From TrEMBL, chain A:
GO terms for molecular function: NADH dehydrogenase activity; oxidoreductase activity, acting on NAD(P)H, quinone or similar compound as acceptor; quinone binding. HAMAP family: NDH1_NuoH. It catalyses: a quinone + NADH + 5 H(+)(in) = a quinol + NAD(+) + 4 H(+)(out). NDH-1 shuttles electrons from NADH, via FMN and iron-sulfur (Fe-S) centers, to quinones in the respiratory chain. The immediate electron acceptor for the enzyme in this species is believed to be ubiquinone. Couples the redox reaction to proton translocation (for every two electrons transferred, four hydrogen ions are translocated across the cytoplasmic membrane), and thus conserves the redox energy in a proton gradient. This subunit may bind ubiquinone. One of its GO terms (biological process) is aerobic respiration. Belongs to the complex I subunit 1 family. Keywords: Cell membrane, Membrane, NAD, Quinone, Translocase, Transmembrane, Transmembrane helix, Ubiquinone. This is NADH-quinone oxidoreductase subunit H. The keyword Transmembrane applies. Pfam families: NADHdh. One of its GO terms (cellular component) is plasma membrane.
From TrEMBL, chain B:
[4Fe-4S] cluster 1 binds at residues 69, 72, 75, 124. GO terms for cellular component: plasma membrane. HAMAP family: NDH1_NuoI. Its EC number is 7.1.1.-. This is NADH-quinone oxidoreductase subunit I. Binds 2 [4Fe-4S] clusters per subunit. It is found in: Cell membrane. NDH-1 shuttles electrons from NADH, via FMN and iron-sulfur (Fe-S) centers, to quinones in the respiratory chain. The immediate electron acceptor for the enzyme in this species is believed to be ubiquinone. Couples the redox reaction to proton translocation (for every two electrons transferred, four hydrogen ions are translocated across the cytoplasmic membrane), and thus conserves the redox energy in a proton gradient. Keywords: 4Fe-4S, Cell membrane, Iron, Iron-sulfur, Membrane, Metal-binding, NAD, Quinone, Repeat, Translocase, Ubiquinone.
Length: 380, 179
């Protein structure tokens, strides 16, 4: 710990950044496998479970890993890396190649603003584990996450083909429609945590801190205090990450493959790793805002749990525990994304637009007004 | 015809907000998530083949281990996709079944063309060609999927058969009362 803290600041930041990416990238990769397994289990079949490296097959106990399909993950990765990568004629090659790269960039940049754990220092204060503990927090996430739609637009446009183009247009329209409701749904949370007299912040760490206070209203997660906000945010999150039932940009039933129709092999897989990384970051934000972040249970904050386990004096252990709790919540949330995908049929495009503009947006505005008035009455 | 007016009920509020229905659907899928898989683990477990299944066409021998086919070529002519190719041949005069006169020198069924119609089995006067219950046909080359005579007999084996037509024919020929 001391050794790490004595390193130059830029090296510490780089190491921390790499550590976070090293965790996030495999989660995004494994999600593609998990998606297939969850799909299979929901459809009463075992899913991918055959691939094995021949000379590994005789190791006892390897069968479980094989049945979980972990070798399929390697096989998929190998296939996507090494298969032929055709670039169709008549595409704009520069933007065609740029699109998947742009898809990855916001997915791995937004994670800088996401606190993924906390530890308790010797003074008893909770210090969040975060790459960039800046006050713009959620604003930065929204700003950078919106860039991800550029990749879809670029992919659709540079492909020089009809279906990708329609997919790209749908993606941009959908993002604009749902970004509004999403932002409006989050505002009550920040109105509530920025009490008069205290320094204002849009940081997510402060939101979790607010949900770990003692007392009934202090310890309540915001999903109990603001259920409508939470539901609007969740629906908008599904739409923003292009997940079913909102996967208009790729909807293979009517658009072949949507924006990625012309893509293959590794470029194609980059879109999907980015989508899963977006999902992971998005659900992390949802958990931080509404589900108490790294607190294990409502009304049971991390510091109380650390007290029960008598590990308050071991900051690294508390930090690890917090991160594990948080990651477990994120992984469960990713599972919910998949669960919904294999339950709910895809909406029609006009239904997506009507839901966004005619239902969610007025609801978000009404929700905001109610909380503005309520918070104004409570906090004066 | 009586016209029955079906009243279309307006959706209730809970139905219109749709979220409870999604939750109900997720409950259903969760049940399936924990339910055991219903699939057949194919290469290890094989499905039960019903009787009368039309699988791969094969050639069969009679209970004495002789080939039944007399290379009449009816199956070759009737085969709609022209999958069967027969090269007729004579049987050597000193062979024990010389009285049969003819047997196929080569008999090929191209499984890339076969449509499993079963007409070859229908048309065979000697009941020498049978569609059996082999359903898994695969190969790495096109050549592997052309079954030659040896392979057809390997797959066909011997079917129980009480006719012994050629025995009777032989006996008749020996006793001079050919029918």
């Amino acid at each position: 710990m001391d050794f790490f803290l004595n390193l130059p600041l830029w090296l510490q930041a780089a190491l921390k950044g790499i550590a976070v990416i090293i965790v996030l990238f495999p989660i995004a990769g494994i999600c593609s496998m998990a998606e297939r397994k969850v799909a299979a289990w929901i459809q009463d079949r075992p899913g991918p479970d055959r691939v094995i490296i021949p000379w590994l097959a005789w190791i006892p106990g390897i069968g479980l890993i094989r049945r979980l399909g972990l070798f399929n993950l390697m096989a998929d990765g190998g296939k996507l890396l090494f298969k032929q990568d055709p670039v169709p004629g008549n595409v704009n090659k520069f933007y065609f190649v740029l699109a998947p790269i742009i898809a990855m960039t916001p997915a791995f940049s937004t994670v800088a603003f996401v606190p993924f754990g906390a530890y308790i220092d010797s003074a008893g204060a909770t210090i969040p584990l975060i790459l960039a503990n800046v006050d713009i927090g959620i604003l930065g996430i929204f700003a950078i996450a919106s860039i991800s739609v550029y990749s879809l637009i670029l992919a659709g446009w540079a492909s020089n083909s009809k279906y990708p183009f329609i997919g790209a247009i749908r993606a941009s329209a959908q993002l604009i429609s749902y970004e509004l409701s999403m932002t409006l749904a989050v505002i009550p949370v920040f109105l509530w945590i920025n009490v008069p007299g205290a320094p204002g912040t849009l940081g997510l760490a402060r939101v979790v801190e607010f949900q770990s206070q003692p007392g009934f209203w202090g310890g309540a997660w915001f999903v109990f205090v603001m259920p409508v906000s939470a539901v609007i945010f969740l629906i908008a999150l599904f739409a923003e990450t292009n997940r079913q039932p909102f996967d208009m940009p790729e909807s293979e039933a009517d658009l072949v493959g949507g924006f990625h129709t012309e893509y293959g092999s590794f470029k194609w897989s980059l879109f999907f790793v980015a989508e899963y990384a977006n999902m992971a970051v998005g659900s992390a934000v949802f958990i931080l805002l509404f589900l108490g972040g790294w607190n294990p249970l409502p009304w049971v904050p991390l510091s109380l749990l650390a007290d029960w386990l008598h590990i308050t004096h071991l900051p690294w252990l508390v930090g690890t525990l917090a991160t594990v709790i948080f990651l477990a919540k994120v992984i469960f949330s990713l599972f919910v994304f998949m669960w919904v995908r294999w339950t709910v049929p895809r909406f029609r495009y006009d239904q997506v637009m009507r839901l966004g503009w005619q239902k969610l947006l007025p609801l978000a505005i009404a929700n905001l007004l109610v909380y503005v008035i309520a918070i104004a009455c409570l906090q004066t | 015809m009586a016209v029955i007016q079906v009243e279309r009920k307006p959706l209730t509020f809970m139905e219109r907000i749709y979220l409870p229905n999604i939750v109900a659907g997720m409950k259903t899928t969760l049940k399936h998530l924990v339910a055991p898989a219903l699939t057949l683990q194919y290469p290890e477990q094989r499905p039960a083949i019903p009787p009368g299944y039309r699988g791969v066409p094969t050639l069969v021998m009679d209970p004495n281990g002789r080939e039944k086919c007399v290379s009449c070529q009816l199956c070759e002519f009737v085969c709609p996709p022209k999958a069967i190719r027969i090269t007729p041949g004579e049987i050597p005069a000193d062979a024990p079944d010389a009285h049969v006169e003819k047997a196929p020198k080569e008999f090929e069924i191209n499984m890339l063309r076969c449509i499993y119609c079963g007409l070859c089995q229908e048309v065979c006067p000697e009941e020498a060609i049978w569609l059996q219950n082999t359903y898994s046909v695969s190969g790495y080359t096109r050549g592997e999927l052309v079954n030659n005579k040896q392979k057809l007999y390997e797959m066909g084996g011997t079917l129980p058969d009480a006719h012994f037509k050629w025995d009777k024919k032989k006996a008749a020929a020996e006793h001079g009362n050919a029918h």
